[in-house]
Amino acid sequence: MSLAARTRAVLHQALEVYQDSPRATSWLQRQLTRFDDPLRLAVVGPRGSGRSTLVVALAGEAGPGEMNWFRTPADDLVLMDTPAIDDDAARSAVEGICLDADAVVHLVRRPSEANLEFLHTLRDHPVARAAAVNALVVLSRADELGGGRVDAVLSARQVARRYRVAPEVAGLCQDVVPVAGLLAAAARTMTEAEFAVLRTLAAVPRAELEPRLLSTDRFAAEEFPASVAAVDRIKLLSRFGLFGVRLALTLIRRGADTPSALSDELLARSGLSELRARIDDYFLARRDVLKARSALIGLEVVLRMEPRPAAAPLAAELERLLAGAHDFRELRLVAALSTGRTVLPGELKAEALRLIGAAGTSRTDRLGSDPVLLAVRRWRDRAENRELSTRERQAAAVVVRSCEAMANGSV
Amino acid sequence: MAPPWLDVLDDTAQMCATSRRPDLVNRLRRRRAQLLDEKLRVVVIGESGQGKSQLVNALVNAPVCAVGEDSTTAVPAVVEHAETPTATVVTAGARAIEGPAARPAAPETVTGQANRDAVAVSGRPVVRAEIGLPRALLADGLALVDTPPKAAIETVDSADAVLMATDATSELSASEIQLLEQVLRLCPTVLVVLTKIDLVPGWRGVAQRNRIRLDQRGLMASLIPVSAALRLAAARTGDKQLNAESGFGELVKCLHRDLPGKADLLARRSVAALSTTTVEALQSSLHEEFAATQQPDSGDAMARWHAAGRRLEKLQRDASRWQTLLSDEVSDLISDAEFDLRDRTRQILTEVDEYFDTADPAKAWGEFEEWLRENLTSVAETNSEWLLDRFEWIARKIARQVAPHREDALPDSLPREVPGDAVGDLRMPRVERFSVGQKLFVGMRGSYSGLLMFGLATTIAGLPLINPISLGAGAAFGAKSVFEERGNRLKRRQHAAKNAAHRYVDDFFLRYGKHSKDTARQIHRALRDRLNAIADELRGEITETAKSYKQAIDDDTTRRTARANEIRRMMDELNALRRRAQSLADHPGRLPAQRRVPA
What we know:
The structure holds 2 protein chains of 2 kinds.
Chain A: H1 3-17, H2 22-36, E1 39-44, H3 51-59, E2 69-71, E3 77-81, H4 91-100, E4 103-108, H5 117-123, H6 126-130, E5 135-139, H7 142-145, H8 152-164, H9 167-170, E6 175-178, H10 181-188, H11 192-203, H12 206-209, H13 216-219, H14 230-253, H15 259-270, H16 272-284, H17 287-305, H18 312-324, H19 326-339, H20 346-355, H21 363-367, H22 372-383, H23 390-407
Parallel strand pairs in A: 1-3, 1-4, 4-5, 5-6
Antiparallel strand pairs in A: 2-3
Helix pairs in contact in A: 1-2, 1-17, 1-18, 2-17, 3-10, 10-14, 10-15, 11-14, 19-23, 22-23
Chain B: H1 4-18, H2 22-36, E1 40-45, H3 52-60, E2 77-81, E3 86-91, E4 101-104, H4 110-119, E5 126-133, E6 142-146, H5 152-156, E7 161-167, H6 174-186, E8 190-195, H7 203-216, E9 222-225, H8 228-237, H9 240-246, H10 248-258, H11 263-294, H12 299-358, H13 361-402, H14 436-460, H15 468-585
Parallel strand pairs in B: 1-6, 1-7, 2-5, 7-8, 8-9
Antiparallel strand pairs in B: 2-6, 3-4, 3-5
């Protein structure tokens, strides 16, 4: 029986135990309903880190404001923009977000001033500690990290690569991704008119245009070599930023001369595509696991707030679920292997990732045409190979467990 | 003539030396050397990623400081004037005793190399990178120092002026304001440089809000918006217009034209700030010490002194108590001893009576006399032994009360002499002997009446008066009289012997009793004197200790009062020094950098 099914069963048992308590019953009912809802992703971060901008970039349209869940038109995701998480943020608000969201994207302007207090609070719960698999850290102003150069996001990727293996974040999040939030949002919602303005600008000879792109003041000046009104240029600047304008003009010159082509290129270079991929891999593909995790946290709250003798078997079952939940461990290992926190040699890494379900969680996605028992034996040998390091052997042990699950047919 | 700030600085150092603060003295001494130096150190500080290194690069128009995405600068870089471009990496010795060593490097790559070496585990620790460049800006002895964010405060300690970089993408954060406040206390000449204005469309708004923020917090620092990217682009193309837009003109004017000529003013302001903080540091420690002198902490000595007083009182109370106890015990003892003596002599007398009921003193006197003397002697010995034993016991008991911790409270032994003369000579009572004549006479007297009685009776029967019967009866009567007389005499002798013995024992009792009582009284007196002497000794000791405690307490109080007065005097001096330091800063002649730059 899968984790999700077992969690559902426990929730139903809990409903029976608590049927005389209206508060607990309504709370548990809510957890059950949430189970079938799309995944809830909260965007959190300090003041000025670009939360709303990133919500727009992810959803493709402006959200309904802070603390409101709204479903993205395109896919199976519910997003929420949260109030700024600063040092003086109300503790209840923070805890509310922790309970309400299935997964969290935490925005950081630059690594040196990151306030990871929220991520610690997110983990400050018995269930959450056993399954810290629902957070991503985003360097949300990647263009500023690179000083606004055209290759700024590339250099931000270097920063992210160093930062994701730093000990203070390694245990708190699945991955660190750089995103130029402003550009991403603009690219997601680019209008025909904007594209037209950009194309007009790109048509100006480089020698004339280049000095105009040196600063925002110069770009917004009254006299300009192209027939674009200053108001339009200022609007463009506020939507794309100087970095975005520079990048868009370069891309148009290189041949991205349709709105959709430009939009795609910009999304890729802003880092949003990578963020989407990570959200797909770590969150959406494991929706059931994350939902089960949220439901278990909800159940734990009930058991803690209204303890009663009849609930003792439930608490035991909860603990058994957490201790035995292999899905959480798979998810951690997927992240550890892809971010380089755990290192396996080339072909081993690819095979391990496939077997623990990084490329898809169905049996065929994992195994292909390999006989499962051979995989079990191979990985068991590796888990017991004294020449490998402890972390490698631990990783191999997780893979063995996945293979065994397939062998006994529970996947 | 020495400038006034030098006097203030030297006086402050003098005060630090008086307060035994070698750390502060060293700091002031270092600062003094730096201030007297012609060189002007301008330190560039700011949080990570605010564009500090780029600011230095743009100021000297050369990429001398390495620029990167995050936390690039790991060691300070000092940029100074030189005829030709030079660069060195300064490393500390592997051991503390080795001085710094310099290693030449290429000016373009020196900081990158220094930063790499600084984070590397092996090799000599890098202290700083030094770069020399032929620049008009630096020609007057200006030295620009690029700092890693962590070392900002310690570098500012040796700065003549500070440039604080904050980028225009966000307003001044709480931590930046805090850093600025700290820096202003150490070095009052601060310029806040708003960097990266080329990237942010609304930088004017950010600059305005930052200025308001600085004003609200009362921070004396003016704000200059600049763009290093524009300045470097202008340097590449030689575009004057672009250079003007970069905002560096204003900054260079401050650094180049205003700072070098105002060395004295800068020094005055630095000294004012430095002296004020130093004086405050001294005053706070003095405040603490003064507070400590105000509350006597010699509680220990005080408590011991009180304890000694209490012990003395207790000793006096005990003295009368144990004296009563001693005389009670002694009178008990004397009456017990007397009873014992009487009891023993009474037994002896009973035996004497029984003995003389049968024995003839005339025959057995010698034997009896010896027995009686032996018995009485042993009575005297036993009784006196017992008396002394009990005395010892009493003495021990009371000595324990008087001086529990003194083994020598008791004399080693009590006088243990048994009165030898208590048993005197016993004379035999005078007993008249029953001589033959007397026997004859008594016999004759008795036989006479018998002879006559029976002679007369037999005459009736016609017998002569003297006949065999009457002769026989006379002989019988005579013998009977002699026997009776003998028996009477024995009884008389026995009685006399008993009387003599009783008198003798009485005499013994009287003499020995007197002697025993005398002994008891003597010992009593000796014991009392001895214990009194010990109690006096103890009292003397305690009084002495109490006196020494009191002396210590008095000394302590005197010392404290003296120290408190000293502190008060020093406080006054420090306050005067502080006023002098502040008057340095209030001196007319403000630095143009302090003026507000029009927005």
